[in-house]
Amino acid sequence: MRLEYRVAGRDFQAAGGAAAKIKRTLRQIGIDAETARRVGIVAYEAEMNIVIHAYRGTIRIDILPERVNIRADDEGPGIPDITLAMQVGYSTAPEDIKEMGFGAGLGLPNMKRYSNELEVKSQVGSGTSIIAVINLPAKEGS
Amino acid sequence: MGNIVTVRDIVDKLGCEVAAGSRKLDSRISFGYSSDLLSDVMAVAGPGDIWVTVQTHQNIVAVGSLTGISAIVVTGGADPAPETVSKADEEGVPILTTEKPSFEVIGILYLMGIRGRKRE
Question: What is the interface size between A and B, counted as CB pairs within 8 Å?
């Protein structure tokens, strides 16, 4: 099963909406609460990164028998130093956004924390792609 | 501990207003967390928590529903934006508002037997 959402840069009104829909859908199709929460958090951080930093992007969720793949692709400025961006507290978000409680330098670290695998690819001046994998808990008796 | 605390107990004890989510006041509280950085809340807060913050914009509802917390307490006399209220009603996330500052609210919650959510 695949879910796909478009995310507009700087749209703080709709921000978080895609992640909320993703979590709800996962619960509706019988994914356990903890996994749905982890996918929701990773999708939220990916969505907020697009809203804060990029012009536009998409979030795609693939639900497979053993795992959930989350892919976020954006058109935006890209990340010059991914190692630095992965550090807790490092942020390039503008001041007005920080005042709203965003841009604490926790987005990518949170994604890493709640996913089993995380890959970040970026091209400066073009955009960023993030691929996160969250394993589903093993089913009993299988 | 051992005693069960619900969102309604907190409303009574703090004497705060219920700005949104009045249908969900019987939810039980597991732990408490306070932060004004949304990603920090995302990282730490968990199901059933009470979250204390000064933030009032719409995104607190998304953070609330994604983490599965029981309620948000907006402190310092700040009023949540109308879109925040309607979204919170839609999602069933109670928002309580109080004139009291965060520090005082947390002290009262602690005395009610609620302990802080620890970073895993």
Answer: 69
Does A140 fall in a domain?
no
Question: In the block, which residue shows the tokens 């895993």?
Answer: B120
Asked if B99 and B77 touch (Cβ cutoff 8 Å), the reply is yes
Q: Which domain, by its residues, includes A118?
A: 2-135
List chain B residues with CB under 8 Å of A20: 62, 65-66, 91
CATH code, domain carrying B44: 3.40.1390.20
Q: Is the dihedral of CA A93, A99, A102, A105 positive or negative?
A: positive
Q: What is the pLDDT of residues A31-64, one digit of tens each?
A: 999 999 999 999 999 999 999 999 999 999 999 9
Condensed to tens digits (0 to 9), the pLDDT of residues B19-37 reads: 999 999 999 999 999 999 9
Instruction: Report CA-CA distances (Å) from A107 to A129, A131, B6.
Output: 14, 14, 31
- ipTM score for this prediction: 0.85
* This prediction's pTM: 0.90
Which amino acid belongs to residue B25?
Answer: L
Tell me how close the Cα of A24 comes to any Cα of chain B, in angstroms.
9
Whose tokens are 């995104």? That residue is: B59
Contact criterion met (CB < 8 Å) for A40 and B66: yes
